[in-house]
Amino acid sequence: MKLTTTTQVSVDGVMQANGGPNVLDVGFERGGWARPLFGGEAMTFVNEVYQRADAFLFGRRTYELFAGYWGVMDPGSGPIADALNTRPKYVASKTLTEPRWADTTVLSGDLATAIRELKAKPAGELQVHGSGALTRWLLENDLVDEMNLLIVPVVVGQGTRLFSDAGPDMALDLVESRACPKGITIQVYRPAGRPQYATD
Length: 200
Description:
- Helix 1 packs parallel to helix 3.
- The mean pLDDT is 94.
- A hairpin with a 5-residue loop joins strand 7 and strand 8.
- The protein is of the alpha/beta class.
- It has an eight-stranded mixed beta sheet with strand order 4-3-2-5-1-6-8-7, with helices on both faces.
């Protein structure tokens, strides 16, 4: 399976609480920065991404947020809920023992080996949505095949960023780029090894 990540990110790189504040974001007062600009073409793109998933991979925090929101929706609630509730889900966690969302497998051992085994399946797409810490770890371990970045035209000014200040460097091949009417740009990249640096 191809492993893809999908992240909504502000111009200054923030990915925290894009949809709105929640109980896990104590003290973060700028949640919900993406939602007012989301709709139309950007939403269509996200719906299409979810629909082509064969399985989902989450970090624990995003898994619990999604389980409490999307996981309780009835069949026919929409393309995102239907995809999440009818396809296998994997969650990377050393502490989660009894997942409450149906069709969930906890990956608690050697995560890199487990993900490589999933990627070795013959076809399909293993998708990561949100899950910032997991996404950074996947990139550091060369496990990401494609990245979907939805860049929202806002500077949040604080919050957890997708890329850390001291992460690995990487070149990216641009696969697709388009702008949506409300200013969100969709960038699809494939990791392409280390960047080239000027020497003079």
